[in-house]
Amino acid sequence: MDLLLQEAASFGIPLNQTQSNQFQSYYSEMVEWNKRVNLTSVTNHTEIQIRHFLDSLIVSTAIPPNLTNPPPKVLDVGSGAGFPGMALKIAFPSLRMTLLESTGKKTEFLNHLAEKLNLENLEICTGRAETLAHEPNMRESYDVILSRGVAKLNTLAELTLPFCKLGGISVAHKTMGISIEVQKAEEAIKTMGGYVKEVKNIVPNGKKPPAESPTKLTTALVILGKIRRTPSKYPRRPGIPAKNPIQP
């Protein structure tokens, strides 16, 4: 995990030897489970360090200091193989992390991994965001909502902002060149009680790396703030936010 340690440090995210070992175990378990459960199409050791682990850790740069003391209550919607939530939990053990994933085989992997890595204060839920966002113990209960590669932003706003506390944020993990998608999502974001706080393009070391660099990232973090309560009818029933997203 030398490459991960080096690149994470360039973003101000130091990782110790224990965490390096945990990420190595994460890699090994994911590759093994991937033989029978579709967790990821990326299995190369170098690529996983950058495209999965580092790309997850840089989400921490979007969390403002006022949400880190005490450690925030974080929800990762559509966690899949644990990105970005599980990776962030390894790097920042004090986070109060919940991973939400609708596929039972994937949450089985996440539970196995949490036990293997001896991670505490970590909850793993199997279910749909459209359903669980109406549960009183989860609705508007989290300081930070995360999502990576889940849906278009107009759909994602409906799937994430109902979980978000007033004053909290939802961080959508996207790729650069996101401006049109953000514009099309403004009505959905507003309807859910949010606004576009910032679009943060990730540039390692403050410079664009060469095209052939294994550490090249094209990540944009769309940060939504929550300023009003989400109307009780949202999110709509499972599947509807994706099939019929709120339009401008």
> Which structural category fits the helices and strands?
alpha/beta
- Count of alpha and pi helical runs: 9
Q: Based on CA inertia axes, which overall geometry fits?
A: globular
Order of helices and strands: HHHEHEHEHEHEHEEH
Distance between the termini: 45 Å
How many β-strands, per DSSP?
A: 7
How are the strands of the largest sheet arranged? 3-2-1-4-5-7-6
- The gyration radius over C-alpha positions equals 17 Å
Low-confidence runs (pLDDT<50, min 5 residues)? 205-214
The helix content, as a percent range, equals 25-40%
The average pLDDT score comes to 91
Strand content: 15-25%
How would you sum up the major sheet?
7 strands, mixed
Question: Mind explaining what this structure looks like?
Answer:
The chain is an alpha/beta fold and 248 residues long. The protein is 35% helix and 21% strand. The protein is built from nine helices and seven strands. Strands 3-2-1-4-5-7-6 form a seven-stranded mixed sheet, with helices on both faces. Helix 1 (2-10) runs parallel beside helix 3 (45-57) and helix 7 (153-160) packs parallel to helix 8.
Could you give the topology of this structure?
Blueprint: H1 2-10, H2 17-33, H3 45-57, E1 73-77, H4 85-91, E2 96-101, H5 104-116, E3 122-126, H6 129-132, E4 142-148, H7 153-160, E5 164-175, H8 179-191, E6 194-201, E7 219-226, H9 240-243
Parallel strand pairs: 1-2, 1-4, 2-3, 4-5
Antiparallel strand pairs: 5-7, 6-7
Helix pairs in contact: 1-3, 3-4, 7-8
